[in-house]
C-alpha cells in the first residue's frame, strides 16, 4: 500500500499540516462512478469508531505544547473515550478537582459540527490551528507535551537544547517511538516513508533532531523526508536573532546527515508576486502559502498506482541527491497559469507517460520527464516564489560569488485541470538508463511530473491569491532542486555561528556545516565554469 506516516512537531508544523490534511480530505469521493486520482490509503488509515462504524483518519502524530491544541480534544464524534477511573482506597478523604477553563470552539468549528455552512474565516478568528481544521484524528494521534506551555514567558520553548532535553527526558520515561510511532508503523503493509515537519530555529529543532536519531535507530532503511520551517530574523533583538541562527545551525548539522531529503521553508524576506497577499503576522496565512507548495511537491508520492509505477519519496530523493550526500533541496513555486518552461533548446528529451488502468481516468495521466539541459538553461526563472533564502545581509555577497548556480538535480511538479500529456517517446527502462548516464557524466537531472489535478481552495484556506475566487482551484507549479546556492546558504550560516555559538561547541558545529556545504561544490566550483577558465 506504500503508506506514509507524518510526524508534526510544534505549532508551526501543525498549522501547515492542518492545511495539508484539509486538502487531502477534499480529494475524497463518495460515488462508485468517481475515483480520485489520489490514493487515500497512503496517508489515511481505516479503523472502527466507538459505535463500531468504520473510520478513516490520518496516519499522523501531532505533538504540541500545553494549550497548543486550542479546542481540539482527544475525544471526538468518532471516538468516545472514557477517562480512566482513579483507583479507590488510596485516599478516602475529600478531594477538590481543579479544571482549566476549556478553550471555546471557533464559530467555524461549531458550524462544521452542526452541519451548516461555516462563516468566513479571518486572521482574527483563527487563534489556533485547530480553528480551521476539517478532519477527525484518531486519539492516539494527539500527543500533548504538558511540560511546557505555549507562549510561556516564564519557561519559553526557544532554545535548541531545551527541546533536546525534553525529548530525552520523555523518551527515557516512555520510549516515545514504542508508545507513539510503532503502532502506526506496524499496521502499514509496506511503509513508503516518514515525513517529518518541524521548526528548526527554536526548541523544536532539538526535539526533532533527537526524534530523528531514534527513527534512524529503529527504521534505518526507511526513507525520511524532513520539512524544516524557519521564521524571519528581521525586527528582532540581536540576542534572539543569534539564538535562532544557532538553533538553525544545530538543526541542519544534526538532522541533514540523517534525512533522505531536507527541505527548508521560510517566508522571511521573500519578495512575493503581485497576485499573492500574505499577512506575515498570521500563521494561518503564512502556512497557507507554504502548504500550497508542500502539498504540490509531495503530490506524486500519493497518486494511485499506475502501470506498476509511482513517484515515491525514495525516487524523489534519488533524483535530487545526485552525488549521494546532497539531501538539502531548495523549494520554489509559481501559481500562475503559464506552465511553459524557459529554454526550449534542449539537447535531449526523454518522456514517460504513465496512464491509469481505468479507462474512465484516461485523461488523468501523469508524465515523468527527464530532460537534459544546456549550461545556460537552468529553468530557474520559471518560479516566482523562493522559500530557500540566504540571509539578507549576505545575499549581495552570494550573488557576487556565483553568477549562475549549477543544478545537480531538479524535480518539478505541474498541476492543473487542463494538463495535457504528450506521446510516449521512451520506456521507463530507457529513462533509467538515461539518468544513469547523466549521473556518470555529472550533468543535471530534471524530472517533471504533470498532474491533471489542480490545488483546491477550500473555505478553510485564507484568501491570499488575488486572482482566485473562494472555493475554486488553482494551477500550481513547484520545483525542488539541489544546486550550488545551497553551499552559499550553509557557508553564510557557518560564518555567523562563529559569533552566535559558544566556544565549546563552535569548532565541531563549524566543521559539520563545512562538510555539508562541500557536497554542493565538489566537481563544480573547481571545474570548467570557474573564472580562471
UniProtKB/TrEMBL annotation:
Protein name: Tubulin nucleotide-binding domain-like protein
CDD domains found in the cross-reference section: misato
Keyword terms: Mitochondrion
Domain DML1/Misato tubulin: 118-303
Main localisation: mitochondrion
Keyword Protein biosynthesis assigned: no
Transmembrane segments: none
Compartment(s): Mitochondrion
Basic and acidic residues biased stretches: 357-375
Chain segments carrying region Disordered: 355-375, 415-439
Any Gene Ontology CC annotation: mitochondrion
Location of the Misato Segment II tubulin-like domain: 2-113
InterPro entries: DML1/Misato, DML1/Misato_tubulin, Misato_II_tubulin-like, Tubulin/FtsZ_GTPase_sf
Function text: Involved in the partitioning of the mitochondrial organelle and mitochondrial DNA (mtDNA) inheritance.
Swiss-Prot/TrEMBL GO biological process terms: mitochondrion organization
Tagged with keyword Mitochondrion: yes
A Pfam family per the record: Tubulin_3
Protein family per UniProt: Belongs to the misato family.
